[in-house]
Amino acid sequence: MLLVAMLSASGQNGWQFIDSIPAKGDYIISDELGFVYLINGNQVSRYDMYGNLTGTYCKLIDGPITCADASDPLKILLFYNDYGRIKFLDKTMSAQGSDISLAPLGFQSASLACLSYQNAFWIYDPSSVQLVRFTNALQQDQITGNINQITGFEIHPNALFEAGNTVYLKDTARGILMFDRYGAYLRCLPFLKVKWFTVKDDNLIFLTGNELHSYNMKSKEEAISMLPITDIASVAYENGMLFALKRGSLYIYSVKK
Question: Which of 1, 26, 101, 123 is 20 to 30 A from 131 (CA-CA)?
Fold first, then answer.
């Protein structure tokens, strides 16, 4: 069943409450296995879909985690903006290999990072207004060039994510910019004031206010579902499960069939 159709059917009363647990944090992300990662300062805690804590990682000297990417649950990316450092965790929530410092690579001011195919990663550098992809050997192999000049408008992005053959860069004022896997600009989806987004197959799933949207990028169909909880700090959606972080609690829901 298309996710668009599933959310259309869920409407306002289609969410089944499962549980809530105490969970103080800044934001959450999820992986394809259904695990949820709670980021709280310099600590990341992993929960299963039932709210059971399955692992934590914290290193005080690293400073706060700016953004994280668990699209590969075997290699979780943590990015520390204060120190320009990237760290990877394995499936046991242990540090994997050595940290990557971006300053020696020529990018002292990178503000975002995400995983890429073949164990590579992307960064966004606001000083040059461009995306840069590094291989697992830390070699630059793709670069967008100045995005302001390419698009004709100024951007201030706050989220970066790769799915399939596409890289997505979220800008609250402009929308969601799309690039191909080689860094070529494709288009900007004009969805504004997006608090969170992810991509599942051909569906762009995103949160605005108290509404969860699903936009199918092939059919152009869009569905909107009112969430059963307000004042959400962060959400994650995986395999029909919705996780919402609000005021020190993690709420777990499923889509009613």
Answer: 26
